Known about the structure:
Low-confidence stretches: none
Number of helices: 7
Number of strands: 0
Distance between the termini: 36 Å
Order of helices and strands: HHHHHHH
Structural class: mainly alpha
Largest sheet: none
Shape: globular
Radius of gyration: 16 Å
Strand content: under 5%
Mean pLDDT: 78
Amino acid sequence: MITVSMLSFTLADFSMVYWFVYFQYYWFSELTVLKHISLFCFLVAIVYTAIDVWNPFTFNSMLMGGALSVIFLLGFEFFLLGVRHQTEYLPAFIDVSILAYLLVEFIDLTVLALMIWLTGMGFATSLCGTLVELVLRSCPRSMIFDILLCKKRV
């Protein structure tokens, strides 16, 4: 995502992490901590975004400092698996996490490329363009999760 302000960076960060965590726990519904998966995703995305805004990964930042939010996210999820004695899910959870990241990034880049092609770079880099892009990115994600990846609900 092209971010031009702190607000667009925060919105993009929140959206990306929300869908990333949603995809992980969509396949492992027995691992969810809260009854409502959306609330869990929302809370994790808020904390991740706060850490990333407080300590962003920039050209001048150190690798460990800039990766603090990612370390928190994966560390928190692995901690939850360990505390709840569900470590047998760890290899599959890591595979799904990689798949989730690739899916989220593929959708983001596809929507961004189409938006730049259709509207131009000026609109794509504006706050209004960022909001339109966030809406457009959420539609394919929710369709993939709810329709294409038809999973039996128990």
